[in-house]
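[Solved] Which block belongs to which protein?

Original post:
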Amino acid sequence: MLAGIRIVEFEALGPAPFAAMHLADLGADVIVVQRKGGEGNPAKGASDLLDRGKRAIALDLKGAGDLGVARALIRSADGLIEGMRPGVMERLGLGPEEIRAEQPALVYGRMTGWGQEGPRARQAGHDLNYLGLSGALFYGGLPGAVPGVPPTMLGDIGAGALYLTVGMLAGLVQARTSGTGCVVDAAIVDGAQHMMALLRSLGTGFDTGARGRSLLDGPHWSRCYVCACGGHVAVQCLEPKFYAQFLEIMGLADDPGFAAQFDPDQWPAQAARLSRIFAEKSREFWAERFDGSDACVAPVLSPDEAAQDAHMVARGHAAGSVLPAPRFDGAVMPVGDPPRRGQDGVAILQELTERGLL
């Protein structure tokens, strides 16, 4: 889908390399500039999944020679992705003002937690901090409970990497049509705040200023329940017709205690009753009971269990695999293996020389 597009990525952690991987999954030629002599992020292991489909070159950006190679690489590219703290790229002489003065069509992607400006811009932070400050974490728990720690994919990936991916694609379209690129400022706090538009729209008429009383974070029909085996099921039958199916399967269709679906004052008692019912049977029992229905109930599976689920298997998923998404015309985009650190350096230098950029 992105054949002919080249992205230069400066090695960082988390959301920036994920966004670059996403573009590589979509067919872009992504060259990751790794730190010469470095070992990368120890948490990534020997083979970093986030580098799949990319080419790698190792450079010392504090040395004039390698800095010149980095500049040449950027001159060969349509876009750049960096995930440093604000000011780092500027100190290297690779900031957007300097680079885009020479390459006005370049799309310059910047990935941070707090953003490029603001009182916290130069402070350290992590996924949970950004979600907390943006207001998104407010909804991450049941009434009376401490807000939960959501998977890092909510902040780093959902509110960060995917917003950078969308921004890069929009910038590339503009550059192709007008010859003018842009600076994409993708901040996780901005993405998290933006994603709450769905909650705010669904919460119309509900008290979104109190935890447990907005439309998705308090109802008995929008939460997880513990089963007899210790496993869990996820219930979220928002629409009345799905709620009706849920009650029918649970044997509660004629129970007056569940007639009021949207009364926050009744949610605690209704949830307590459902907790007792679900705790009587195993997760497998409930999964089979709701299988094939529109009651919007699913088992909470571990990643290994998910890889064995019939639906996930039918979609081509397997244990340990992370398939590219989305799919185009029903097909999964092919991806290459992650490169070893700096493995493509010689070939990349030769390409730059042949193009007269070195």
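(Second protein starts here: sequence line, then its structure tokens.)
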Amino acid sequence: MSSLYDFTINSLQGKEMNLADYAGKVVLVVNTASKCGLTPQYEGLQALYDKYADEGLVIIGSPCNQFANQEPGDSEAIQGNCLINYGVSFPITEKIEVNGKGAHPLFAYLKKAAPGTLTNAVKWNFTKFLVGKDGQPIKRYSPTTKPEQLKADIEAALQA
């Protein structure tokens, strides 16, 4: 696979999302969790989406339960948490794995294209991958990088 646009992933509602539909947009892909100390980052992600969606930013949240069982719920529970607690309106995928043999191919690609420090594995919930309008990963951000810290990079990618 040579770009983000080569992948499909199911939405939280079980509908196939063809990522080629986002061609020409800047995409931020984030592995998420509802019971994590970093879960309040949903607010910051939604703020970025509200600010930049009209300029071409798409955020895709991908719930994952591989880190300390912090996303134990089913699709309904995840949707309720995202919508009720954080007002999330950006796309959320089905619950997936981001590491190991069961890792979703999208995350296998992102990890290889935007390597991490020491290892390519996703280290925790809320690891973020910024992808340019051409479908190529630009940068990986650590889980503790707050969404508002991405503004300059997002603005640069939108202008590119």
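Accepted answer:
You had them paired correctly. Confirming on the second one: The mean pLDDT is 91.
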